Amino acid sequence: MSASRAGEVFVAGVRSPVLEAGAPGAPEAAVFVHGNPGSTHDWADLVQRVGDSGRRAVALDMPGFGDADKPATFEYTNYGYARHLGGALDQLGVSRAHLVLHDFGGGWGLTWAAQNRDRVGSLTVIDTGVLLDYRWHAFAKVWRTRGAGELFFRSATWPVLKLSMRRGQPKPLPESDLRRMFAAMKDPGTQRAVLRLYRATDPESFAGARAPLQGLSPVLVVWGAHDPYLKVEQAHRQRETFPEAQVVVLSGSGHWPMLDDPEGLAAAVVPFLERHIAAGTAQPA
């Protein structure tokens, strides 16, 4: 088993913790980008598995989330996050990225990919992607409404979160992960990031990367069949942008396959990445 390594990068003075495994310094790597309210914790299992295969795997906390900096001056938009991701990849020496994106990480990663298509080795989208004819889910509508979004975070309680997170889930998420999400929801910096991000993003913008990414390959699409926020129909619509995409629907999963079906997710993602990332030399444990 390869050893996981922790580090950090600073992009324009904004710190992002980094989790790595596999071939140190390899210019080609799987790059895992979380969404809301995620962090590197979401990817720890997959980073380790990809690292064990001899490929380099990298995940980072994006600004406003996890243990990353949460400055008021950061541009909490898809473009701001894309710039941060690009700066982080440059610092990490990743010249060819095999993107693995989830949730709002899809908006960030696809914005970067649309600007840097020649640096994209492959694309894996998990309950995210180029969303066509998309309409906001109920939580997003609240967060986008001034006053209501702030009240939501002030009044959120642990019992309410547990109850709301059962929606669409065929089985409960692990309590440790729910508590991590709850802690993020109560963090003022994360609250600011969520409110600014959702208020700066129109649903139509999720389709904005379609033209520059049209026909990109290879692409893997993985979706939880019971996702209440991004309906499974969007999984199949990814082929309107990526005609050759492989689509995998996890029948027992919701919006967070890495939490409620880690084995099913790994069975789809790890072999795909092994096929498309050049093997490096993993360090012994």
Q: For the record, give the distance between the C-alpha atoms at the N and C termini, rounded to a whole number.
A: 6 Å
* Contiguous uncertain segments of 5+ residues: 281-285
- Rg result: 18 Å
Tell me the fraction of residues in β-strands, as a range: 15-25%
Largest beta sheet: what is the strand line-up? 1-2-4-3-5-6-7-8
Biggest sheet overview: 8 strands, mixed
Give the structural class. Answer: alpha/beta
Would you list the SSEs in sequence order as H and E?
Answer: EEEHEHEHEHHHHHHEHEHH
Q: Count of helices?
A: 12
Mean pLDDT reading: 94
Shape: globular
Helical residues, percent: 25-40%
Tell me how many strands there are. 8
Report on the structure:
The chain is α/β, with parallel strands linked by helices and 285 residues long. Helices cover 38% and strands 18% of the residues. It has an 8-stranded mixed β-sheet with strand order 1-2-4-3-5-6-7-8, with helices on both faces. Residues 281-285 have low confidence and may be disordered.
How do you describe this structure in short?
The protein has 285 residues and is an alpha/beta fold. The protein has helices at 44-52, 78-92, 105-115, 138-144, 148-155, 158-164, 175-186, 188-199, 210-213, 233-237, 257-260, 262-276; strands spanning 5-11, 14-21, 28-33, 56-60, 96-102, 120-126, 219-224, 246-250.
Outline the secondary-structure elements.
Elements: E1 5-11, E2 14-21, E3 28-33, H1 44-52, E4 56-60, H2 78-92, E5 96-102, H3 105-115, E6 120-126, H4 138-144, H5 148-155, H6 158-164, H7 175-186, H8 188-199, H9 210-213, E7 219-224, H10 233-237, E8 246-250, H11 257-260, H12 262-276
Parallel strand pairs: 3-4, 3-5, 5-6, 6-7, 7-8
Antiparallel strand pairs: 1-2, 2-4
